Amino acid sequence: MTRPRRRRVFSSRGGLAAGASLAALVLAACGGGSGASTTTTQPPVAPSTSFSTANVTGVGTVLVDGNGRTVYELSSGSVKNLSCTSSNGCTVVWTPLPLPSGVAGATAGGGASSSLLSTTSLGGTTYPTYNGFILYEFTGDTSTGQANGQDLSSFGGTWHVLDGSGTPVTATSAGTTTTTYNY
């Protein structure tokens, strides 16, 4: 006698919701979808209009936004500001920091230089720059004082924090190693 096959069914709404959230995140990271917005697992943070420096373990005194979160730039060799867009899946992992509507520019706090702050416009949205670098947060940093994205290689370049003079802190200057991820 053959036993009937059993189908697995989620027994709770939480399991089904978690599965749906994971599927949406994976789909977004792969660049798929119908153009509808997806939700990330990181809580939304209001865009910051202020930048200063703070001491971050492992990398030293680096640029942070007004919420105290470490900011990064993406470059490769002498090429600044490699393409980090939603269409290539980059912004799922690296959150851009657009200026809020009606705000013309960012301000410099302690340790940051107002002369290095500027803006650039991409696709009708204005973003702050520091020493010409577009700024991003890393979703792997779950609180202030972290730099888990430092020296990660992805999306065609390497991510670095910036010191107060706007210079990328590299693996050599920070004494760390580079990790490559194939997103």
Explain this structure to me?
The chain has one domain (49-180). Strands 3, 4, 11, 12, 13 and 14 form a six-stranded mixed beta sheet that branches. It has a three-stranded mixed beta sheet with strand order 2-1-6, with no helix packed on it. The chain is of the alpha+beta class and 183 residues long. The protein is globular and about 35 Å long. The model is unreliable at 3-45 and 174-183 (pLDDT under 50). The protein has helices at 13-29, 90-93, 171-174; strands spanning 50-56, 60-65, 72-76, 79-80, 94-96, 107-108, 117-122, 125-130, 133-134, 136-138, 152-154, 157-162, 168-169, 179-180.
Q: Which helices and strands appear, and what pairs or packs with what?
A:
Blueprint: H1 13-29, E1 50-56, E2 60-65, E3 72-76, E4 79-80, H2 90-93, E5 94-96, E6 107-108, E7 117-122, E8 125-130, E9 133-134, E10 136-138, E11 152-154, E12 157-162, E13 168-169, H3 171-174, E14 179-180
Parallel strand pairs: 1-6, 11-14
Antiparallel strand pairs: 1-2, 3-4, 3-12, 5-10, 7-8, 8-9, 11-12, 12-13
Count of domain modules: 1
Question: Element order, helices and strands?
Answer: HEEEEHEEEEEEEEEHE
Computed Rg: 19 Å
Overall morphology: globular
Q: Classify the secondary structure makeup into a structural class.
A: alpha+beta
Q: How can the largest sheet be summarized?
A: 6 strands, mixed
Q: Terminal Cα separation, in Å? A: 49 Å
Regions with pLDDT < 50 over 5+ consecutive residues?
3-45, 174-183
Number of strands: 14
Please estimate the helix content: 10-25%
**Beta-strand fraction estimate:** 25-35%
